[in-house]
Amino acid sequence: MAAIGDNTGSTDEDLVHALAAGDVSALEILSERHSRPAYSLALRILQDSGWAEEVVQDVWLKLWKNPALYDASRGDLRRWLLSVTHNASVDGLRGRRGTSVRRDGGAVALELARDTGEDPSESAWKSLQAERVQEALAELPPSQRQAVELAYFEGLSQSEIATRTGEPLGTIKTRVRLGLEKLKRSLERVGMRQ
Amino acid sequence: MIHEFIHEKIGAYAIGALDRDEVPDVEAHLRECAECAQALAGYRRLPPALNLAVPDAPLPDGFSERLVRRATERQRPVAMPIPFRRPPVRDGLHRYWQRLGDALLPWGLAAACLLVALLATGRISELNADLSEHRSYRAQITEVMASPGLRTRAVEPVNSQVQGNLFVSKTRDSAVLMCTGLPPPEEGRVYQVWLTGGGKVASAGTFKTWSSGTYYFLVHPSEGLAPYNRLRVTVEPEGGSSAPSGRDVMRARF
Ligand SMILES: [Zn+2]
């Protein structure tokens, strides 16, 4: 393989092309650039460092073996990596719980495939900082925050959350709905300001 | 009435929190209601944002080196994983076909990207051979699945939660083993597919699953399927064994 070790100034797009051509050093550079947030996400979901590493590496290896999985016209690589890592981690968690078939509960799984386009405020969202999102999440009332986190980071459906917490399903649905509405509004505000 | 009812579920839908049986009504309504579709567009930004809302954890030492090592371990794959987002078994053959189509579709694009990259770098390497190998593997699976008179045999799980089917094509003298819910094998292990019949046992190759647990394996012995009447899958050391030695995970009859 040709060395591209001097490529750290390359764009992700260049590196993905090099990766498609089988240049393993491009994979290494991309991993150094983007693995940390993906690993943090997998660790948050899986609560196990070895498992989190494996899941993130599996995502990279999928891309290595099939570069067409990532389509640059649909969004940046980091966003793709995080989305695929989220799906793989939640699937893994559900597999361990014995609910191995992913609940077909919504748009997340095919999110990227259908994510066509940018609206005017999209670029504001792109620059959204992790700390801002964490703050927005922390501002939610604890019961709403818990419901949103159980759904998103533990892959539970609303009725599974009701079972887990012992709360009525209707209460959980309300918490998820209000929590997400509030989160969306406060992120919109932050996004606009940035 | 239905609009209000569905509208309340859009956020949960966007983050994947609906129960499975609630989804069809929501999706049907989304196709017809511009207001709900627009609401969904707003909520679609939540998952990428939530992906950032986690405590920052430093990468374990040697992470990228280990990744590179795994990427360059060129076990000539007998089989290539086809990553699917969702296990297709529950949806019947029609939906399954759509998804197989979806999964195979990007290959045209991959080939184009690769060609551009090769032209740009002038790097014509063994990757060419690799890619055509992978492409032909997928093409063969498609051909088997599309062949007339395809028979479907249920896979029987052994000590596992695996679900799946064995699709047997007489005309192509091949089969496709489709399974889902099969966890990745332990470190240093692979799944090995065996064909048995008339006191004979032959290896049909090895594979590993991803965290999705879904896998498509082409069974295409050079001597054809005629000598065999059963298939079994065992866990074996990396590289495969000459005879089944590990625990069984599934079996099927042709
Ligand atoms: Zn509506």
Which properties best describe this structure?
heterodimer, A: 194 residues, mainly alpha, Rna Polymerase Sigma Factor, Chain: A, Arc Repressor Mutant, subunit A, 2 domains, globular, disordered N terminus, B: 254 residues, alpha+beta, Immunoglobulin-like, five-stranded antiparallel sheet, four-stranded antiparallel sheet, 9 helices, binds zinc ion
Description of the structure:
The complex is a heterodimer of chains A (194) and B (254). In chain A, 69% of the residues lie in helices and 0% in strands. Chain A has ten helices and no strands. Chain A is mostly helical. The model of chain A is unreliable at 1-7 and 100-124 (pLDDT under 50). Chain A has two domains: 1-118, RNA polymerase sigma factor, region 2, helix turn helix motif (Rna Polymerase Sigma Factor, Chain: A), CATH 1.10.1740.10; 119-194, Arc Repressor Mutant, subunit A, CATH 1.10.10. With 254 residues, chain B is of the alpha+beta class. Chain B has three domains: 2-44, no CATH class; 56-75 and 92-146; 151-253, Immunoglobulin-like (Sandwich). Helices cover 37% and strands 22% of the residues of chain B. Chain B has helices at 2-7, 10-14, 23-32, 34-43, 46-50, 63-72, 92-104, 106-121, 127-146; strands spanning 151-154, 156-157, 163-169, 174-180, 189-197, 200-207, 215-219, 230-237, 248-253. A five-stranded antiparallel sheet of chain B has the order 2-9-8-5-6, with no helix packed on it. A four-stranded antiparallel sheet of chain B has the order 1-3-4-7, covered by helices on one side. In chain B, a hairpin with a 2-residue loop joins strand 5 (189-197) and strand 6. In chain B, helix 3 packs across helix 4 (34-43). Chain B is extended and about 65 Å long. At the A-B interface, helix 1, helix 2, helix 3, helix 4 and helix 7 of A face helix 2, helix 4, helix 5, helix 6 and helix 8 of B.
